[in-house]
């Protein structure tokens, strides 16, 4: 049993390193977890043409406090992906606004060609619902485009 | 030499897995960093409370009447004088007007048939000129 090196060397060498073979599995698990749990947009985009504005600013509010209202070219109103009539808008928005403790921001996403009469009706409905903060969602217009126009 | 030869072939028979962790973490960190949640952009405005109506003297109002063609007719409070301009020219006009009257209010009145984009253009110009007192109305005949 007289082994060169004392005989202990081998067993102590095996435990001297952290096992790194499972590290890849852990990393891939995390990678897949984050990829699966990343949610990009809660509601589907409606087919509208965006209006463009140069001075558009980011909406400084948490995502859960933003309510998107879509206004289509023919006057169709969509709140939370559900089609509604203009008359229903007040009764739908008012409870949501109260539930959010008046922190709700309404993001109005109107088609650029929608006649203003519908936008005015929607604004009246929002005023009646007690909403104060409204954002007209637009795409950012580059100043280069503007000069060309 | 035969012992050495067998060792060499054994070393290359497996795919090296020690760098796999580095590759996976690199991907993980790359995706974590590059993921941006798209934030909505827009023109913010504060709507009046229901039933709230402020009385404003006519000399503090500048009327911007947006026609359905996109032409903006500018009327200053009391005077009957009208001026026609494009939405892009509103910014310069506002900057000029507000220096002489800091209490100025922009009353944007849009024709019911005018496309929404013209109202956005005017609102954009007013925002660019740092106008804060804006009233949105529909144009009545």
Automatic annotation (TrEMBL), chain A:
Residue ranges of the TM segments: 20-40
Pfam families: ExbD
Topology of this chain in the membrane: Single-pass membrane protein
Record keyword ATP-binding present: no
MF-aspect GO terms: transmembrane transporter activity
Signal sequence segment: none
Keywords, alphabetical: Cell membrane, Membrane, Transmembrane, Transmembrane helix
Keyword field contains Cell membrane: yes
Assigned GO CC terms: plasma membrane
UniProt subcellular location: Cell membrane
Principal subcellular localisation of the protein: membrane
Protein name: Biopolymer transporter ExbD
Species this protein is from: marine metagenome
